[in-house]
Design a protein that fits this description.
Elements: H1 2-29, H2 40-45, H3 47-70, E1 79-82, E2 92-96, H4 106-133, E3 169-173, H5 177-186, H6 202-217, H7 225-255, H8 265-282, H9 290-310, H10 320-331, H11 346-362, E4 368-372
Antiparallel strand pairs: 1-2, 3-4
Helix pairs in contact: 1-3, 3-4, 3-6, 4-6, 4-7, 4-11, 6-11, 7-10, 7-11, 8-9, 8-10
Length: about 375
């Protein structure tokens, strides 16, 4: 039985290693296994991305695992989740461990929850430090975009237009505070890549995606890692108050501008009820009555719609809508109380605040924007 479980975990890891390597080759070098000949050299070009990404992911999950075992809480090895290396997929949805016995105390919940993101963050910081201190010359991007060379190093002022990129895709990476630190204080300014080209720098791109995963895990809601941290720092009641406010702000920002108030009546007739219905189901995690949930859904939409009307062009990040729905509908906003709610001691409180700082450093309001341009 044990060897079967080992085969399952090892098999999932190997499949995820392959899919992330294929995804890395596609993202960083534009060589897809689905289009034309694909050689072992092409496969190897995706290794820096997959090794970086999976090392950070593994550090995160084993941070949870080893601390759980330390507290004698039964836990599985990580289940890696592969994704097919389709265009704009990252090769994996991450990984998770399952706790197979009850976590008896607030302190143990906190320790297990905080260990993963802090371990992953430390490893991600190391990869990003290496990536930013070993940047290639700016001409590096010409091997992926030879048509940029006609503009020289001034290409950024010419190429990111619909006319120039007809039939292509423009991928823009958002910034977070940690990236700004590396760009302004660590890297050679002459070699810092354009945000549109970071996908071709595997350590930077994989490190950035890992920071996005870390920030999602550290959202202070429900039983996410950040939820465990806030529950440990503030207790059951305050946790729910904080989580509810954060969730409402998160949902509001995610859907801001998604429905254009200047769209025609025909579009509005189906967009408005669908959006309000989506909010209704996402907000069920707050545990309100159906009437109050519906009222809150309508209120959020009305505020978004009014703001978008008076401030044309203002938008949030619709990519967060899926996460808001999953958290609100399936994972829940509240944190279940622990049998033993002994408050955290001072060292744990300090670690908890450090984890919240890590969340602020890693979170990017608009992490990645992909724009497909018509031929």
């Amino acid at each position: 039985m044990v060897w079967k479980k080992g085969l399952l975990h090892g098999g999932l890891f190997l499949v995820t290693f392959v899919t992330t390597t294929l995804a890395g080759a596609s993202w960083t070098h534009g060589t897809s296994v689905f289009s034309g000949p694909f050689t072992w050299t092409d496969f190897a070009s995706g290794l820096p991305y997959s090794i970086c990404f999976l090392t950070i992911l593994t550090a995160h999950e084993f941070g949870h695992y080893f601390v759980a075992r330390y507290h004698k809480v039964k836990a599985t090895l990580p289940y890696y989740i592969p994704l097919p290396p389709l265009p704009f997929f990252f090769g994996t949805l991450g990984a998770l461990i399952r706790l197979k016995s009850q976590v008896p105390s607030t302190r143990q919940h906190f320790d297990i929850g905080v260990a993963g993101p802090l371990a992953g963050f430390v490893v991600a910081f190391g990869f990003l430090w290496y990536g930013f201190t070993h940047l290639p010359p700016p001409e590096y991007v010409f091997q992926f975009h030879p048509n940029y060379q006609v503009f020289g190093l001034d290409y950024a002022n010419h190429v990111y237009t619909d006319e120039f990129m007809k039939g292509g895709a423009d991928v823009l990476i958002g910034k977070n505070l940690l990236f700004l630190f590396f760009e302004n204080w660590v890297a050679d300014p002459a070699r810092v890549p354009n945000p549109h080209e970071i996908i071709h720098y595997p350590f930077l791109f994989a490190g950035f995606l890992s920071l996005v995963f870390t920030s999602i895990n550290l959202l202070p809601m429900g039983q996410l890692d950040g939820g465990h941290v806030v529950y440990g720092l503030f207790g059951y009641k305050r946790h729910f108050q904080i989580a509810a406010v954060v969730f409402l702000v998160f949902l509001f920002y995610a859907g801001l501008g998604y429905v254009d108030p200047r769209a025609g009546l025909e579009a509005m007739l189906w967009q408005v009820p669908l959006t309000i219905g989506f909010y209704f189901f996402a907000l069920k995690g707050l545990g309100l009555s159906p009437l109050n949930t519906a009222t809150l859904a309508v209120g959020i939409f009305a505020l978004q719609h009014g703001l978008a009307f008076f401030v044309p062009g203002i938008t949030g990040y619709s990519g967060w809508l899926l996460f808001a729905f999953l958290i609100g509908r399936f994972m829940g906003i509240a944190h279940p109380p622990s049998p033993d709610e002994t408050p955290l001691n001072l060292p744990r409180k300090i670690i908890g605040w450090v984890a919240l700082v890590v969340f602020v450093l890693c979170f990017s309001p608009n992490p990645i924007n992909i724009r497909l341009i018509e031929p």
